[in-house]
Amino acid sequence: MDEMTTDDRPHKAVLIPGDGIGPEVTKAVVRVLDAAAAPIVWSEKQAGLAALDAGGGEVLPDDTVEAVERAGVALKGPCTTPVGKGFQSVNVQLRKRLNMYAAVRPVRSLEGVPTRFRDVDIVIIRENTEGLYSGAENRVTDDVVISMKVATDSACKRISRWAFRYATQRARRKVTVFHKANIMKMSDGLFLDAAALAHERDYPNIEFQQMIIDAGCMKLVQDPTQFDVLLLENLYGDVVSDLCAGLVGGLGVVPGANIGDNCAVFEAVHGSAPDIAGKNVANPLALLMSAVMMLNYIGSERSDPRATDSARRIKVAYDLALKDDQKTGDLGGSLSTDAFAEAVIERL
Ligand code: NAI
Predict the structure, then answer these.
(1) Is residue 123 located within the same domain as residue 241?
(2) What residues does ligand 1 touch, defined as CB less than 6 Å away?
(3) Measured from the CA of 330, which atom of ligand 1 is nearest?
(4) Distance 97 CA to ligand 1 centre (A)
């Protein structure tokens, strides 16, 4: 047998199946990537309830975090954080511990998925490490609890530069910041100032727009095609991601990536969907699209055309499947999770 050269070697990636529909959709996605000969070798690790059930006593074991640090990339299913049991969200912890400060969520209309609007093409960039997700909550009196919204100048500037650089590299024309600086003058004010500064100082060629978030949401649902890149702090980014998913067919079709300077974790915007878990009906497409983002990331960060090529083939195949009306229930079809994966594989 020929020996593998360095260039033939697959890339190590961590696979976190997660909870609820996570194991079903990750299994379907891994099947598609295998069929597309994606140059990936998986190392499976646990997070969420699955990690607790495995007996470690933690929703995010050190072993999982270290594996992602070593591999540099991971594909993650959604994780359930037990409510009211003292656990900090798995996702918040993972993003903070690996300093993945930028969440990127492309929201695009898909042919074969009829929705109110056509030609939606928005990229949401969400600050991933602070804001109200800092978890700094206190009971002040029996009657009062407070939750602290943290904004740091450095993190606001970092995500602003990142968003404008992303817009420049992807030939996008405009960055819009949604904020509430009229009320939260200091925290949202800092965020807004950082974005304006990045535009003025380093990226004057990208149009900059700012909008108070309530008006912005109204405009989004009236005509989403007026938006290009949306830059938001943590909580707003979380909420507006689901709103935008609703504009293009729902949570089954919106992928995402959490990106830092040293590693990236790719995951769909949706959660663990306990209402449909274990029924083989969840749409694996959002996670498959996230896997395509992962392959493109590997392709460009590590200059590996095999990764980019398998990403392209998978995208062509799922686009074809949708055009051929091969869809899961959330998109008005009747295919199971596995049958949709099979339909994509047939079209590779
Ligand atoms: P969810 O996204 O899990 O579900 C919302 C609705 O969308 C449900 O009706 C669900 O059936 C549907 N849905 C979601 N994904 C779908 C898919 N792939 N195919 C078809 N239908 C789909 O949001 P929810 O119910 O608020 O959260 C459930 C759990 O997920 C919570 O424990 C939450 O903390 C966790 N979560 C985890 C995330 C992550 O790990 N990145 C992100 C969001 C929530």
Answers:
(1) yes
(2) 21, 78-81, 91, 251-252, 267, 270-276, 282-283, 286, 330
(3) 20
(4) 23
β-bridge partners, 327: none
Element (H, E) at 145: strand 144-147
CATH code at position 71? 3.40.718.10
Please determine, for residue 78, whether its predicted confidence score (pLDDT) is greater than 60: yes
**Count of CB atoms within 10 A of residue 281's CB?**
18
Nearest CA to ligand 1 atom 36: 271
The per-residue pLDDT for range 101-132, each reduced to its tens digit, is 999 999 999 999 999 999 999 999 999 999 99
**In this structure, are 281 and 340 located in the same domain?**
yes
Total-model pTM: 0.96
Asked whether 250 and 97 are in contact (CB, 8 A), the reply is no
| DSSP element (H, E) containing 237 | helix 234-247
The answer to whether residue 220 is domain-embedded is yes
**The pLDDT of residue 8:** 83
Domain containing residue 49: 10-108+250-348
**Residues annotated as catalytic (active site), given as ranges:** 133, 180, 214, 238
